[in-house]
Amino acid sequence: MYYDAESIIQHYRCELPKDKQWKWIFDASGFGLKHFMQVDVGIRLAKLISSEYSKNLTKIQIVNTNMYVNLVYNIISPFLSKKIREIIDM
Length: 90
Known about the structure:
- Strands 1-2-3 form a 3-stranded parallel β-sheet.
- The protein has one domain (about 20-85).
- About 50% of the residues lie in helices and about 15% in strands.
- By secondary structure, it is of the alpha/beta class.
- The termini are far apart.
- The chain has helices at about 5-15, 35, 40-55, 65-75, 80-85; strands at about 20-25, 55-65, 90.
- Helix 1 packs parallel to helix 3.
């Protein structure tokens, strides 16, 4: 469910490594209006990654971008730390 922000954030908390380096490759194939409309999930994820998981994150690679991905990035980028913004490649 795309609108259950709390469960999505909890899933990331359980899965993301805090103690080793990692790279995030995000395939935006199929990312559409229904995802864009849930911008709260993106903002909360941006805050989580910036505050708790950025120390060992070396790169965020976003592939197959589209209009919706670009719009979401523009909305959530103010919530990303400078370090995170610098390692994003779209």
